[in-house]
Amino acid sequence: MKVRVFSSEQEATAACAAHIATEVRAKPELVLGLPSGRSPLNVYRELVALHAQGALDLSRAMSFNLDEFLGLPPDDASSFRAYMDRHLFQHVNLLPERIHFLDGSAPEAESECARYDSAVEKAGGLDVAMLGIGPNGHIAFNEPGDALVATCHRALLSRETRQGLAAFFGNDATRVPLAALTMGMAALMQARQVLLLAFGASKAAAVTAMLHGPVSPQCPASFLQLHRDVVLWLDSAAASGLEQR
Ligand SMILES: O=P(O)(O)OC[C@H]1O[C@](O)(CO)[C@@H](O)[C@@H]1O
């Protein structure tokens, strides 16, 4: 894994957005995997700014978001779909028909997951998957456990993960849904490039475990050690555990 440490989150996210814009210029039909949560917010802000300056044309690109809360329809203000509309899609020229999302309100989770896996496959897989990481090492909503799931699936969210998402639910963790639909490990591991964002001291232990711990389902992000093209975009606080080694 390539580790890029910046003195601030702002610098890291600007560099990551510039990298994405370069990838889109090299391949305008780029298939992007996109995360939600706090970490990518500044990347989205920078992408919107690049688009406004005429430096980013997403008209031929395609996106697949990584996950969605179970039970939330796309128009629920707390859904990841609404988050993406607010922070990125309303401000750039990705075509609506090229934006892909899991529908958390689909009547059957299993067929919704199968539909999504086939859509990713039909697109030829992800070219660039941007990921966040949970303090417990989760990527997308692949939570730590005895085993990981390769395919898109319904995942129960850990108490820690729900706590971390409380800010998106009026700071009330009890309002965070108990489960989500998520891309599985295979689609993430098959992405041609992975860009992982981690900022702040609360991510330091997970970053160290991802890079230097055993490859284990107890830290899903550790599987990225087996991927040939991963770039970590860290601020110095998230990288602090690496310096102490
Ligand atoms: O960026 P945050 O809010 O710390 O969240 C970490 C990760 O956990 C999630 O909330 C679950 O996928 C992601 O959206 C994010 O990548």
TrEMBL record:
GO terms for molecular function: glucosamine-6-phosphate deaminase activity; identical protein binding. Its EC number is 3.5.99.6. Residues 10-233 form the Glucosamine/galactosamine-6-phosphate isomerase domain. It comes from Stigmatella aurantiaca. This is Glucosamine-6-phosphate deaminase. Keywords: Hydrolase. InterPro entries: Glc/Gal-6P_isomerase, Glucosamine6P_isomerase, Glucosamine6P_isomerase_CS, NagB/RpiA_transferase-like. One of its GO terms (cellular component) is cytoplasm. GO terms for biological process: carbohydrate metabolic process; glucosamine catabolic process; N-acetylglucosamine catabolic process; N-acetylneuraminate catabolic process. PROSITE patterns: GLC_GALNAC_ISOMERASE.
